[in-house]
Amino acid sequence: MQNSPANRIPSHGTEVFASSNAIDFVPVDDRGVSAPITFRTLFRPEPPERFSGFGRPILSPATGRIVARHDALPDHPAYRGFPSVGYALTQRQRAAEGWPALAGNYVGIDTGHGILFLCHLRRGSVKVEVGARIGVGDVVAACGNSGNSTEPHVHVQAVDNLDIDSARPVEIRFNGSLPRNGEVVDAG
Fold this sequence. Notes:
It is a single chain. The protein is of the alpha+beta class and 188 residues long. It has 4 helices and 9 strands; from the N terminus they run ββαββαααβββββ. The strands form 2 sheets. The chain has a 7-stranded antiparallel β-sheet. A two-stranded antiparallel sheet has the order 3-8. A hairpin with a 4-residue loop joins strand 5 and strand 6 (115-121).
């Protein structure tokens, strides 16, 4: 997976919904691309199935208890090239609908140090129920393209409480460090 953004705060250009420390992990193939770029890519939305990460298992990066889950929003086409401009113009509408419209399908894990959200999951793929205990490496869902997502990826965000409107961001570390923007992270 290639991450973006990571070492820029606020990572997504905003502190709204406690997202200032969020990281997006974009699954890539052996060549380091999420999907081939073609002439069509420049002018039309693409099916999410075209991307190497769509449907790939998402493993828990932490031990904890499931405290939130949502699994009903549809996966939508991916938007690169000119279609991404039109999609970006509709972001304000999704933000006005609130955090669930941005997060798409998600799982929240209480780690004891904060609540870790894994977002943009594939509809119908969430494997865990609220109250369940999980460990590092347990399958929680599949990579999707739900919510405010231009291509299949996993948005990882940690907050201090379940009320996203009042939550504050919690810094995320992987094995004690933060991957640099664009760094390829191998979970294996």
